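Morning!

This is the sequence you dropped in the shared folder:
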Amino acid sequence: MTVLRLGVLISVVALTVVGQQNSPRQTLVPPASCRVTTPPAHPFTPPAWSEPGDDSFWLGSEKLWTEGSKSGVWEWEPHKPGHEHEVQPLTVKISWGSVDYYWRKEPRPNLTLTGRRLDGEAPPLLLMPMTHILPGPGPNAGPGTMLAGVYVPTPGCWEITGEYRGEKLSFVVWVQPVKQGNQ
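The structure's back. Tokens below.
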């Protein structure tokens, strides 16, 4: 009887471990101490723009907008030793839009991006050179989108600010380490 109980116990433990490894990612929740940006009460809709993704919302005005994450969380991985000052791999790519932006006139957008950690000291963000996303095909395809590749150097509560042609837009995100099972 003891052998049977031991066999059942081992089976239950094994099935639990397998179930946890194959389960979908856990919901990402920022701590209460980090007041992440949430969808506004009166949503902004960019001119002639696509719908935001399931976990995102539009933030800003027609002069400068971006897509925010409803969870308010970005996942983060440290760089390998000796590569701390390299931008790749990125933490996130952020697309920005403006009625004043047109990719043919400004293929390298004059968008300035900064970040500051709100809950402690941290080195500055690492950024790829600003670039753009081409609009879809056709003569009325649109102005394109500005794109920023960002590496956040440490986890924590971060305020990210974009500035384009005198217009500033800031939002707050919680940057948390990727759990080993989620990679």
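Headline: The two ends are 41 Å apart (CA to CA).

More detail when I'm at my desk.
O.
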